[in-house]
Automatic annotation (TrEMBL), chain A:
<dbReference type="GO" id="GO:0006629">
    <property type="term" value="P:lipid metabolic process"/>
</dbReference>
<dbReference type="GO" id="GO:0006081">
    <property type="term" value="P:aldehyde metabolic process"/>
</dbReference>
<comment type="function">
    <text>ALDHs play a major role in the detoxification of alcohol-derived acetaldehyde. They are involved in the metabolism of corticosteroids, biogenic amines, neurotransmitters, and lipid peroxidation. Oxidizes medium and long chain aldehydes into non-toxic fatty acids. Preferentially oxidizes aromatic aldehyde substrates. Comprises about 50 percent of corneal epithelial soluble proteins. May play a role in preventing corneal damage caused by ultraviolet light.</text>
</comment>
<keyword id="KW-0521">NADP</keyword>
<keyword id="KW-0443">Lipid metabolism</keyword>
<feature type="domain" description="Aldehyde dehydrogenase">
    <location>
        <begin position="3"/>
        <end position="426"/>
    </location>
</feature>
<feature type="active site">
    <location>
        <position position="244"/>
    </location>
</feature>
<feature type="active site">
    <location>
        <position position="210"/>
    </location>
</feature>
<dbReference type="GO" id="GO:0004028">
    <property type="term" value="F:3-chloroallyl aldehyde dehydrogenase activity"/>
</dbReference>
From TrEMBL, chain B:
<comment type="similarity">
    <text>Belongs to the aldehyde dehydrogenase family.</text>
</comment>
<protein>
    <recommendedName>
        <fullName>Aldehyde dehydrogenase</fullName>
    </recommendedName>
</protein>
<feature type="domain" description="Aldehyde dehydrogenase">
    <location>
        <begin position="3"/>
        <end position="422"/>
    </location>
</feature>
<feature type="transmembrane region" description="Helical">
    <location>
        <begin position="464"/>
        <end position="484"/>
    </location>
</feature>
<keyword id="KW-0443">Lipid metabolism</keyword>
<dbReference type="Pfam" id="PF00171">
    <property type="entry name" value="Aldedh"/>
</dbReference>
<dbReference type="GO" id="GO:0120553">
    <property type="term" value="F:farnesal dehydrogenase (NAD+) activity"/>
</dbReference>
<keyword id="KW-1133">Transmembrane helix</keyword>
<dbReference type="InterPro" id="IPR016160">
    <property type="entry name" value="Ald_DH_CS_CYS"/>
</dbReference>
Length: 453, 485
C-alpha cells in the first residue's frame, strides 16, 4: 500500500519539476503514445481478445482509431488551445490587458473501465497530457490482460515518473483514492461514482464522472425501419451490449413492435450469422458475475429472439424481449448486455413522459423522418448527449463534448473539452501603475451624498 | 423544508422556467426589486457589516444591476444551440451543442457580501432556466431577512425559494437532492458540501478562499501601489475573499510600504478611523476574537487597536512576519496586513508555491518579463497585476478558484454555462446508409486495411484530398454493397 503513496509522490515531484510545461514536451509524449499504439497494435488487440473476445476489427474500429484520431487532433490544436485567450474589457479596464491563461492542474488520476479498457483510459490520458499534467492511470482489474499490458508498455514509451500505471482491485483503488489529486476522471457505475466523489471531497478535488444509465431509443412510426433497426442492432450488440452509450431499450408504438423485431433479427443474421456464438465478431460477457446478472434479467420475460447463453464461454445470444413491463428488473437497471427490451408506448408524449420518469440517461436516441418529432423529443427530455436516426456516433465527433448529466455523470471530455477539463482557466487582468487619477472615485472617503453612476 | 424543496422541483417540472421570455421577465423583475427597494437593501446590508450606503451600493448593488443587464442583453444568443465542427463522417449532418437547464439549483450565500454572493449566482441560475433555492448566510441576518421578504414579492414564488436558518437547517437542506450546488465560503464547509452532493451525484461550484499573496517588486511607484493595496485590503474591513492577504517584498521596502499605507489610511479614513462611515466592522464576536489572536506576538508597525464592544479592529500592519506564525497559517479575513520579507522574486515564487493555491494572486511590477514568469510559475484562481480585486469586475472573466480555493467558476456567461447542461447533439438522416456499410459486421482483414487507409485520412491534403477521400468512401460503400449481395 505504501508503494501507491510513493508512486503518486513521484508523479507529483515530476510534475513540480516543470518538465510538462513546454508544449514541445507534451507533443513528444503524445507522439510516443501514438508510436506505442502503432508498434504494439497486435499486443493491444491480443489483450482485448483475451478480455472481451474482440477481434482486430473491433479493437481497431471501436477503440484504437478514436485514440489515434484524438492524438492527431490534439497535437495539431495544442498551440492554439494553450495560448492566452483575450477577453472583452469593461469601460474601466479599456487600457488593460485581460485574458484567460490555461495552465495544468497538477496530478490527474484516471480510473478506467473494463468494457473499452484501452480507449476509456487512454483517450482521457491524451487530454490530460496535452494540458500539461502528470497522469496516474488505474486500469480496471476486470479487464486483466489490458491492465497488465498497459503496465508493461506505457513505461516503455512514455516518461516513467509522470505517467505511472497502478494496478489492483478494490483495496488498491481505495488506497489510491486516499491520495490527493488535482482532478479525477472516473468511468464506471453511479454507485462507485459516489464513492469516488466522496473521496475527492476530502481533498477538494474536482471530478469528471462518466457514468451510465438506461439510454432510451424511441422509434417513431414514421421512419425507415430497415435502416433504423440495422443501426440499432449495430450499436446495441457491439461488444455484446457492454457499451455505456448502447441503446438500452426501445420505446415504440405496439403496431410496429413485430416489424421491429423482424428487422432486428434480419440485421443480426447479416451481422453474426445464424449462430452468433460462431461469429468472430460477437463479443463475450466480461465475467461470471455479469453473465449471471444479465441472464437473470431475461427471466420471466417474453423472448422474441435469443434468450440463451453458455456459462463456460460467457456467451449470451442476442436477445430481444417484447411487451416488456416497465416495472420488471430488466427495466430497472442498466442492462449492459445483449438484451434488448421493447416497451410499448402509444404516443410520442407517452414516450417522453416515460423517459422523464427515469434518471437522466447518458444518451438518448430518436428515430424519425419527422424533424418535429426529433426536436420535440430533444426539447422535452434531458440526457448526456443525443444522436437522432443513429446510435453511438455522437461520441465520435471531436467537437462534441462527451459526458453525462444527473446520474449519468458530470463534466465531459473529448477533443478541446478534454484540454479544458484538465486545465485551470486562470483569469488575468494586467493593469498599469499609471493613471491612478481615473480611480479616484473608488477610494474613500465616499461622497456625503450618494451619487448615481 | 421537504415540502418547500418539493414545491420548487414541481414548479421546475411544470416547464415554465424554460421559455426565454419567462427568464427575461424574471430577471427584469429582479432588477425592479433592486431599484424599488434600494433604500431598504442598503440599510439592511449596511446594518450587517456597519457599511455605509455608498459602499453597499458601489460594492454590491451595482454589480447585480450590471450582471442582470448583461444577461438581459446576451441571453437570447446564449440559449440557441451552438453548431460544432463536423467530422468527415458527419459532414452532412447537424452537429450542435444545446444548452438546457439542470433543474433545481441550491445557492448557499456568504456573509461578507451577503447580497451579491447570493444574488449573482441566482441571476445565472434564472438565466439558465432553472429553479433555485437560496440559503443566505445566517451571520448576515438583516440581509437574510430582507431577501426572504422581497424575493417572493417580485419573483415566481414557487420557482425561487429563500430558506433561512443556521448550521442545522443547512445540514437538513444538504440532504435533499439538487441538480447543482453553488457554495461560497470556507474550505472546511466546502468539503462538507461536496461530500453531501456526492450522495446524489450533484455537481458543485465551490467558491472558497485562501491566502491571496501580493508581491511588490522593487522600482515600483510605491505611492500608487500602496494606495491600491490599501483600498483592496481594507474594503469591508478585510472581509473579502480576494483581499490581498499578505505582502511579499524585499526587506528594504518594508518600511516605505508601511509608511505609505499609513498615509493612505489617513487619506481614506481620517485621523479618527472609528468615526469614518467608510470603515466597516467585523461581522461577529467569534471572528473578532479570531483576528485579534492573529496579532498576538507580532511586530506591529502600525495599528493594532481593537474595541470589542463595537467589533472594531484598526488597520494593522505587521512587519518581518515569520512564515510559521499563526497569522500566516490561515486566511486572515480581517484588516491585518502582514509583510513577509523575501530575498527576491524567485523566493517569492517558491514561497507561494509551497502553499495552497490561492483564490487570487497580485503582482506589482513594471517588469513585464517578471510578471509573465510569476504567472507562469505559480497558480491561483485569478490574477490582477498592478492592482487588486479588479479581475472580479470583468464579466468576461470567469471567477473561481483552483485547488483549495475552489472549483468551477461563474459570472456573466460562465454563470449561464455553469448552471446549464451542454447537451451534445448529432442529428442524422435515415438516408445515405451506404456510408455506414464499413462499420457493420461481418468484419475481415481487408476491411481493417481499408479502414486504416480511409479513417486516418492518409490523403489529408486539403480540399482535393477531401474530395478524393469522399470518392473513395463512396467506392468503398459500393464495394461493400456489392459484397453483401
Amino acid at each position: 500500500m505504501n508503494k501507491i503513496s510513493e508512486v503518486v509522490k513521484e508523479a507529483r515531484a515530476a510534475f513540480q519539476s516543470g518538465r510538462t510545461r513546454p508544449l514541445q514536451f507534451r507533443i513528444e509524449q503524445l507522439e510516443a503514445l501514438r508510436r506505442m499504439i502503432k508498434e504494439r497494435g497486435p499486443d493491444i488487440t491480443g489483450a482485448l481478445a483475451a478480455d472481451l473476445h474482440k477481434n482486430e476489427w473491433t479493437s481497431y474500429y471501436e477503440e484504437m482509431v478514436h485514440v489515434l484520431e484524438e492524438i492527431e487532433h490534439v497535437i495539431k490544436k495544442l498551440p492554439e488551445w494553450a495560448a492566452d485567450e483575450p477577453v472583452e474589457k469593461t469601460p474601466q479596464t479599456q487600457q488593460d490587458e485581460s485574458y484567460i491563461h490555461s495552465e495544468p492542474l497538477g496530478v490527474v488520476l484516471i480510473i478506467g473501465a473494463w468494457n473499452y479498457p484501452f480507449n476509456l483510459i487512454i483517450q482521457p490520458m491524451v487530454g490530460a497530457i496535452a494540458a500539461g499534467n502528470a497522469v496516474v492511470l488505474k486500469p480496471s482489474e476486470l479487464s486483466e490482460n489490458m491492465a497488465n499490458l498497459l503496465a508493461t508498455i506505457i513505461p516503455q514509451y512514455m516518461d516513467k515518473d509522470l505517467y505511472p500505471v497502478i494496478n489492483g482491485g478494490v483495496p488498491e483503488t481505495t488506497e489510491l483514492l486516499k491520495e490527493r489529486f488535482d482532478h479525477i476522471l472516473y468511468t464506471g457505475s453511479a454507485a462507485v461514482g459516489k464513492i469516488v466523489m466522496t473521496a475527492a471531497a476530502k481533498h477538494l478535488t474536482p471530478v469528471t464522472l462518466e457514468l451510465g444509465g438506461k439510454s432510451p431509443c424511441y422509434v417513431d412510426k414514421d421512419c425507415d425501419l430497415d435502416v433504423a433497426c440495422r443501426r440499432i442492432a449495430w450499436g446495441k450488440f457491439m461488444n455484446s451490449g457492454q457499451t455505456c452509450v448502447a441503446p438500452d431499450y426501445i420505446l415504440c408504438d405496439p403496431s410496429i413492435q413485430s416489424q421491429i423485431v423482424e428487422k432486428l433479427k434480419k440485421s443480426l443474421k447479416e451481422f453474426y450469422g445464424e449462430d452468433a456464438k460462431k461469429s468472430r465478431d460477437y463479443g463475450r460477457i466480461i465475467n461470471a458475475r455479469h453473465y449471471q446478472r444479465v441472464m437473470g434479467l431475461i427471466k420471466g420475460q417474453k423472448v422474441a429472439h435469443g434468450g440463451t447463453g453458455e456459462e463456460t464461454s460467457r456467451y449470451i445470444a442476442p436477445t430481444i424481449l417484447v411487451d416488456v413491463d416497465p416495472q420488471s428488473p430488466v427495466m430497472r437497471e442498466e442492462i449492459f448486455g445483449p438484451v434488448l427490451p421493447i416497451v410499448c408506448v402509444h404516443s410520442l408524449e407517452e414516450a417522453i413522459q416515460f423517459i422523464n420518469q427515469l434518471e437522466k440517461p447518458l444518451a438518448l436516441y430518436v428515430f424519425s423522418s419527422n424533424d418535429k418529432v426529433i426536436k420535440k423529443m430533444i426539447a422535452e427530455t434531458s440526457s448526456g448527449g443525443v444522436t437522432a436516426n443513429d446510435v453511438i456516433v455522437h461520441i465520435t465527433v471531436h467537437s462534441l463534448p462527451f459526458g453525462g448529466v444527473g446520474h449519468s455523470g458530470m463534466g465531459a471530455y473529448h477533443g478541446k473539452k478534454s484540454f479544458e477539463t484538465f486545465s485551470h482557466c486562470r483569469s488575468c487582468l494586467v493593469r498599469s501603475l499609471q493613471n491612478d487619477e481615473a480611480h479616484k472615485a473608488r477610494y474613500p472617503p465616499s461622497p456625503a451624498k450618494m451619487s448615481r453612476p | 423544508m421537504e415540502r418547500e424543496v418539493q414545491r420548487v422541483r414541481q414548479a421546475f417540472r411544470s416547464g415554465r422556467s424554460r421559455p426565454l421570455q419567462f427568464r427575461l421577465r424574471q430577471l427584469a423583475a429582479l432588477r425592479r426589486m433592486v431599484e424599488e427597494h434600494e433604500k431598504d437593501l442598503l440599510v439592511a446590508i449596511g446594518a450587517d457589516l456597519c457599511k455605509s450606503e455608498f459602499n453597499v451600493y458601489s460594492q454590491e448593488v451595482i454589480t447585480i444591476l450590471g450582471e442582470i443587464d448583461f444577461m438581459l442583453a446576451n441571453l437570447p444568443e446564449w440559449i440557441t444551440p451552438k453548431p460544432a465542427k463536423r467530422s468527415l463522417l458527419t459532414m452532412l449532418d447537424e452537429v450542435c451543442v444545446q444548452p438546457e437547464p439542470l433543474g433545481v439549483i441550491l445557492i448557499i450565500g456568504a456573509w461578507n457580501y451577503p447580497f451579491v454572493l447570493a444574488m449573482q449566482p441566482l441571476v445565472g441560475a434564472i438565466a439558465a432556466g432553472n429553479a433555485a433555492v437560496i440559503k443566505p448566510s445566517e451571520l448576515s441576518e438583516n440581509t437574510a431577512k430582507i431577501l426572504a421578504k422581497l424575493l417572493p414579492q417580485y419573483l415566481d414564488q414557487d420557482l425561487y425559494a429563500v430558506i433561512n436558518g443556521g448550521a442545522e437547517e443547512t445540514t437538513e437542506l444538504l440532504k435533499h437532492r439538487f441538480d447543482h450546488i453553488l457554495y461560497t465560503g470556507n474550505a472546511a464547509v466546502g468539503k462538507i458540501v461536496m461530500a453531501a452532493a456526492a450522495k446524489h451525484l450533484t455537481p458543485v461550484t465551490l467558491e472558497l478562499g485562501g491566502k491571496s499573496p501580493c508581491y511588490v517588486d522593487k522600482d515600483c511607484d510605491l505611492d500608487v501601489v500602496c494606495r491600491r493595496i490599501t483600498w483592496g485590503k481594507l474594503m469591508n474591513c478585510g472581509q473579502t475573499c480576494i483581499a490581498p492577504d499578505y505582502i511579499l517584498c524585499e526587506a528594504s521596502l518594508q518600511n516605505q510600504i508601511m509608511q505609505k499605507i499609513k498615509e493612505t489610511v489617513k487619506e481614506f479614513y481620517g485621523e479618527n478611523i472609528k468615526e469614518s462611515p467608510d470603515y466597516e466592522r467585523i461581522i461577529n464576536l467569534r471572528h473578532f476574537k479570531r483576528i485579534q489572536s492573529l496579532i498576538e506576538g507580532q511586530k506591529i508597525a502600525f495599528g493594532g487597536e481593537t474595541d470589542e464592544a463595537t467589533r472594531y479592529i484598526a488597520p494593522t500592519i505587521l512587519t518581518d512576519v515569520d512564515p510559521k506564525s499563526k497569522v500566516m497559517q490561515e486566511e486572515i479575513f480581517g484588516p491585518i496586513l502582514p509583510i513577509v520579507p523575501v530575498k527576491n522574486a524567485d523566493e517569492a515564487i517558491s514561497f507561494i508555491n509551497e502553499r495552497e493555491k490561492p483564490l487570487a494572486l497580485y503582482i506589482f511590477s513594471h517588469n513585464n518579463k517578471l510578471i509573465k514568469r510569476m504567472i507562469d510559475e505559480t497558480s491561483s484562481g485569478g490574477v490582477t497585476v498592478n492592482d487588486v480585486i479588479m479581475h472580479f469586475t470583468l464579466n468576461a472573466l470567469p471567477f473561481g478558484g483552483v485547488g483549495s480555493s475552489g472549483m468551477g467558476a461563474y459570472h456573466g456567461k460562465y454563470s449561464f454555462d455553469t448552471f446549464s447542461h451542454h447537451r451534445s447533439c448529432l442529428l442524422k438522416s435515415l438516408k445515405r446508409e451506404g456510408a455506414n456499410k464499413l462499420r457493420y459486421p461481418p468484419n475481415s482483414q481487408s476491411k481493417v486495411k481499408l479502414a486504416k487507409f480511409l479513417l486516418l485520412k492518409q490523403f489529408n491534403k486539403g480540399k482535393l484530398g477531401l474530395l478524393l477521400l469522399t470518392f473513395l468512401c463512396a467506392v468503398a460503400a459500393v464495394f461493400f454493397k456489392v459484397g453483401y449481395h
